Amino acid sequence: MELSESVQKGLQSLGDQTVLDRCSFPVVVDACFRSLLFSRGDPAVLDLPELKHLDKILLKQIHAAATTFILEAVKHNADKSTISFSLEELTFNTERVETFYTTLKFHFWATLILFVMSSSIGRGPAHIKDVSWRLQYQMKNGQLDKVNEPFYLISLMLFYCTSAFARLQDLVGKLKDAAKSVEKASQV
Fold first, then answer.
1. What residues does the COMM domain cover (predicted)?
2. Which of 31, 100, 110, 140 counts the highest number of beta carbons within 10 A?
């Protein structure tokens, strides 16, 4: 994943143990996911007692970088090795990489749905037309002889309202209004 210089600097601060201690790190990571999934831009998401000792500007830079990285990881469907490599390259230690990845894995599907829904072209987000799912059981894979884990396959059928489609809908609405007006005028 290619990251801008400002995102790299923010992530380096997130990984720096002198900036965020062992207790503050998971709180910041969790706050980043909460801001993406639940708060809808509420600035109070970073107003936590565990983070009061941090410089507000630095905290906002870390937050912006971490949320950008989260969305990039979801966008590229990054696996653990890609995330680990990217974060270790930015001076994250193994414990912080594991904490970040575990949190990302926990919130992955919700973040992916948010990402897909907000990345549509046109006036509004995509609309879910249909959902299909199935439960599967993985017994082994290429790396391990025994995995023995259930997992869900979820497919979303999305409908995107593009600007051309929206204009067409507006035209149809205007034509219906005109037809009603003509009908009323002919009855008089």
1. 125-156
2. 100
Token reading at 114: 């948010």
Report the 10 Å Cβ neighbour count for 148. 9
Quote the CA–CA distance of 27 and 58 in Å, as a whole number: 15
**pLDDT, tens digit, for every residue of 104-126?**
999 888 888 777 666 544 445 56
CB 11 within 8 A of CB 69: yes
Partnered with residue 149 across adjacent β-strands are: 138
Question: E-assigned strands of the chain?
Answer: 127-138, 149-159
Helical axes 56-75 vs 24-34, angle rounded to 10°: 60
Q: What is the pTM assigned to this prediction?
A: 0.62
- The answer to whether 135 and 142 are in contact (CB under 8 A) is no
